[in-house]
Design goal:
The chain has a three-stranded antiparallel sheet. It is about 50% helix and about 5% strand. It has 21 helices and nine strands. The protein is mainly alpha-helical and about 500 residues long.
Length: about 500
Amino acid sequence: MYRFFLKCVLLVGVGVLTLTACTKDFEEINTNPNAVGTITPEYVFTKAQYDGVANMLYLLLGTMQYTTSFNDVAGFGSKYIASQVNSSSGAFSTAYPNALNEINLVINAVRDDPAKVNMLAAARIWRVYCYSRLTDVYGDVPYFQANQGYTDAQYTPAYDPQKDIYADMLKELDEAATSLDPAKPTFGAADLLYNGNTAQWKKFAYSLMLRLGMRLTKVDVAAAQTWATKALAGGVITEDADIAKVNYLASGQIINQNPLAYNLLINDYIAANGSSNQEGGKYQKVFIDYLKQTRDPRLGIISVVYTGGTPNQTDTAFAKQQGMPANLSAKPANFAQLSEPNPKTVLLLNSPRLVFTAAESYFLQTEAALRGWSSGAAPTLYSNGVRAALRQWAIISPTDGALSAQRITAYVNNNQLMAGSFEEQMQQIYTQFWVSIFPDAQEAFASYRRTGYPALTPNNYPGNATGGQFPRRFLYPVSEQNLNTAAYNAAIARQGPNTLLTRVYWDK
């Protein structure tokens, strides 16, 4: 018994010594020496820009009838197949843990330092860009309480009405633009868009203000006019040098490569032979037919066919380009002869991603002039927009995207803004906008829902989720129903069912 008792005491003693040893230097041992306790705003801002630009719904290329696929799963964007609707929730799921969380960290890190007013302004402007892309696709989203899990233990943020989100985004742009101070420090080289140039950030802010202000024309025309005129007075992007864009590299990490080009290339066009497309994708017939009917010189820049199925042997000849119908459910016999994105322009990994162009600015200004909200001449503004849109492909690919001055002038002269009713002129402006904004299908989708142009015919494919109607929004993730139930239900009760046909606030 004694020996048993002694053995137990020894064991307990060893245990106590072990516990003491484990608690000694516990914090030092369990602290990652490579981790940092505070963020470096410059690094996180760069990452937020990369992630904000990359977070796009690629399937909208099909929805806006630029591309399609005979593969039902890959072709959801152009076919709206009911069994694939949850693929539309991707941008929502990606935004909050990445770009929105990152830009919120930057704002929290610089907001109390008067010397960093330009950093705060740029972060606020970029935050608006990221949120505008999100709310335009989904409608009501978490906004005021979003990304506060770490700072405020807010894990179930409320969804805010899009009307309130828009009011705050426009306010943020106004305050940020006026706060920019060229005499104070900037993000410098950490700023992928403008390298810290405050004058250009101001133009970007007012250009976003013009875009978002014009979004309101169907629901609050007075507010639309107020914000559009404020934006024009502040000064918007009109020159190629001021285009908001992110530059990329041809090699290195994936994050350093154009995200749209990478996604299209890896998922569908990597074989580069016109036949072995992994997802069965091609340009949609609607898009190619329109470019051919209008003798658009951009056709050979953005589109190729492959010669005899030989890898990398492309033909950009105007007459050979042809698109694929969106109603196919099997690979057509002429698949190898159909047009697909040009690997030297659209699929170029080191091409810049254009975030806001002079062309878009001019088209929005044209509409503002038609509405009597500016003193500009609508025909001149429209021609400036067409000309800028043709030039911008040389920015994307200086070698293979450039059009001669003569070809640009000839196309502009043959595409003047016609006299007619307001609606007839709107149709011309925003049909041209549809061509000019490619491949930014997300912005084309927003413009189409607001204006109704171009006058696309929805694809009434068997088993589609819209009854043959055009989608008006995309779906919240299923995870939101389970993890943020009360907030999700409140949004549904206010906005409408979580379906492709429920309209967002400004789409009335």
